[in-house]
Fold this sequence. Notes:
This protein has helices spanning about 5-10, 20-25, 45-65, 80-85, 90-105, 130-150, 160-170, 195-205, 220-230, 235-240, 255-260, 270-280, 295-305, and strands at about 15, 70, 110-115, 150-155, 180, 215-220, 240-245, 285-290.
Amino acid sequence: MKLKNNLIGHTSLLMEGGLEERLRREYGFSRDEKIHFTALVRSEAGRKALAELWNQYLAIARRYHLPFLAATPTRRANQERLFQAGEDFSLVRENVAFLREIQATSGWEMAIGGTMGCRGDAYTGEGALSENEAYDFHQPVVENFHVAGIDYFYPVVLPTLPEAVGMLRAIAETEVPSLIGLTIQRDGRLIDGTPIHEALDVLDHATAQPPLGYLANCIHPSLAFEALSQPFNQTELVRRRFIGIQVNTSALSYAELDGATELQTSEPEALAEETLRLKERFGLRILGGCCGTDQRHMEAMACRMEGLS
């Protein structure tokens, strides 16, 4: 699936729902301290669980005639953390190959993304890199994703603009398209205080190959609605280039969620209504799920998206 062509030809695409929380709570897997769930692909039980979750979401996309976007569970698989976990970049390539197997048997329009994350804390910005540091730090995983043959790069929950720019510079050298996921707050800014409009403007002009578009990750749709409604984000640029969201089921702040001991969630129908309100108001085209979402939430979203693509 050529993601760029599908973005041109469709106004609605379905991205996968939550993976990590479901792997922990439904399947009983423990999250590796360094690389989270990246190594699950190396066990029979892990591959079975991942395949079940992706195929659930894929079946929903097929049922409602929506192109489907999946992405590797590799947000923490950077050179530093892989080394600390006793692994190497072959693990990144194995994750791409496994998703490619699912794509090959899907019988549906499906794109495979290579998920990347910031070096430090995605919700506070602590440990963030400068632009040049980010380019050097993230270039090795970019190269391995490129070799593995992903359909798009997917840096997610990026809290600071300089690190996002450095990552995008490394990605642009491959000529593989990208979607950029940002950590935004209800005040309409990234964690480092950059307004969404300003972040998009800088990133769009940072390389000769701008991203295909921008998304918000791990945020409740009501908070994203507030963020995009801020006067300084009411621009043609934001309307045109901010194209998607992976919703969190909780409307708590990042600080509150980070300290929560229990899963914060909301009912599928209510979440879907909030998400579709966001889509209709701001023209979002890619809808997916993050923490707290499962097949019920994605089904509720997809049935409302049917006919809008």
